[in-house]
């Protein structure tokens, strides 16, 4: 909550500073041009904020979680798109109003005669393409690697937009203080991405030298991969977190898949457990011992760091049991574990859960059956855990189950700050 409030406060403070410099720079006589300049400034600020959200800085990620940061990144991205579209439309129509040119020819004239405008047009075109492929209807039809490759062009758009702002930005050049402010904003944003997305992963992997030490089939379609390395006791990983894993074979090195730790880190090895849901996870069972591993992370706020109560409820669905099993290993205090699966055969790692529950004095409930009727409806949850409103609740499973459970917990009156979850698309 503190990190989230701090992030909001940081954005609000920068909005105030941008408005101050905007008013200090003076207004143009044309209202459309004034609106164009204002939307351009907000577009630039949101673009810098966007970079901060995707920088994967450990301090932010541990407190907010990559799934929430990714969600904010998505909505900020569309805000950037609309702000820059508005900037282009207002500026073009504003200059066309005071000239004899129509808007299309006015835009062409600006691109040909004003330094930096052509770069801005190219940047806007890139952002529009990225916005289109990020829309849900397109995202579902693209392979993750294709979508990610297109998304990398965002950095090209950022550089082009920044050079445009330097060349013609009235607010940017209005005073030395304003110039220093905007260089500072862009410098911090780009440095955050450089450190969080490049320097830190490279340094950690060079330090820890990760390799596959064992591959164990848990069932017909679920496999666990054990990873060892150097100085793993110094890797700041916690139960409930996940890594983006790359297994450096000739046919897999370019694939990065998010898998949770399925056992609490012990300083000697890491373990991930995955269900064969796609080509990436299905191929894990064919990994050879000794395969080099490049892991980005750890990521996620789904940890005991955010506990508010001494006792807990852990609810898992399907292979979402992996971070739940790791959390149970680390938790102190009484815990109730509820594991929801279609059939007994789908209960991956159930034997380990039984042993852990016995060792830690936890209650374990295996709930089986089809999705309907809902066997984790409010009345059933209250029966399994009568004091659920006095416990922290950790959830991980498929999105439909998660959404239903969050609604059930709200109906039961469980305070929002006691509910902790990681979306299955990142955790499983």
Number of helices: 17
Kindly report the oligomeric state of this protein. single chain
Fraction in beta strands: 15-25%
Q: Helical amount among residues, as a percent range?
A: 40-55%
- Class computed from helices, strands and strand pairing: alpha/beta
Task: Give the integer mean of the pLDDT values.
Answer: 89
Distance between the termini: 25 Å
State the shape: elongated
Helix and strand string, N-terminal first?
HHHHHHHHHHHEEEEEHEEHEHEHEHEH
**Strand order in the sheet with the most strands:** 9-8-7-10-11
Word description of this protein:
The protein is an alpha/beta fold. Helices cover 54% and strands 15% of the residues. The protein has 17 helices and eleven strands. The longest helix is centred in the middle third of the chain and has 33 residues, at 176-208. Residues 424-428 have low confidence and may be disordered.
């Amino acid at each position: 909550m503190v990190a989230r409030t701090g992030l909001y406060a940081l954005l609000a403070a920068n909005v105030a500073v941008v408005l101050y410099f905007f008013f200090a720079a003076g207004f143009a006589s044309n209202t459309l041009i004034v609106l164009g300049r204002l939307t351009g400034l907000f577009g630039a600020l949101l673009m810098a904020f966007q970079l901060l959200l995707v920088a994967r800085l450990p301090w932010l990620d541990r407190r907010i979680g990559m799934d929430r940061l990714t969600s904010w990144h998505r909505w900020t991205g569309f805000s950037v798109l609309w702000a820059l579209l508005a900037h282009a439309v207002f500026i073009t129509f504003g200059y066309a109003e005071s000239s004899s040119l129509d808007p299309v020819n006015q835009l062409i004239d600006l691109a040909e005669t004003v330094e930096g405008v052509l770069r801005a047009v190219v940047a806007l075109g890139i952002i529009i393409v990225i916005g289109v492929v990020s829309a849900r209807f397109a995202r579902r039809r693209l392979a993750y690697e294709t979508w990610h490759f297109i998304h990398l062009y965002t950095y090209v758009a950022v550089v082009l937009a920044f050079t445009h702002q330097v060349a013609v930005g009235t607010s940017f050049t209005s005073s030395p203080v304003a110039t220093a402010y905007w260089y500072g904003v862009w410098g911090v944003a780009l440095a955050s991405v450089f450190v969080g997305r490049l320097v830190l992963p490279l340094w950690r992997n060079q330090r820890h030298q990760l390799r596959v030490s064992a591959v164990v089939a848990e069932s017909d379609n679920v496999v666990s991969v054990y990873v060892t390395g150097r100085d793993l006791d110094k890797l700041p990983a916690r139960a409930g977190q996940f890594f983006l894993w790359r297994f450096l074979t000739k046919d897999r090195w370019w694939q990065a898949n998010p898998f949770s730790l399925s056992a609490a880190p012990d300083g000697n090895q890491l373990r991930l457990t995955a269900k064969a849901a796609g080509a990436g996870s299905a191929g894990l069972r064919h990994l050879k011992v000794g395969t080099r591993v490049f892991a980005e992370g750890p990521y996620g706020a789904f940890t005991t760091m955010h506990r508010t109560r001494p006792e807990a409820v852990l609810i898992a669905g399907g292979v979402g049991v992996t971070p739940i099993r790791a959390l149970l290993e680390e938790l102190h205090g009484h815990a109730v574990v509820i594991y929801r699966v279609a059939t007994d055969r789908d209960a991956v790692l159930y034997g380990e859960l039984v042993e852990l529950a016995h060792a830690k004095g936890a209650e374990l409930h295996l709930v089986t059956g089809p999705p309907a009727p809902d066997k984790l409806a409010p009345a059933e949850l209250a029966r399994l855990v009568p004091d659920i409103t006095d416990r922290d609740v950790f959830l991980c499973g498929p999105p439909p189950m998660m959404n239903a459970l969050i609604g059930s917990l709200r109906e039961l009156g469980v305070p929002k700050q006691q509910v902790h979850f990681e979306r299955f698309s990142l955790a499983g």
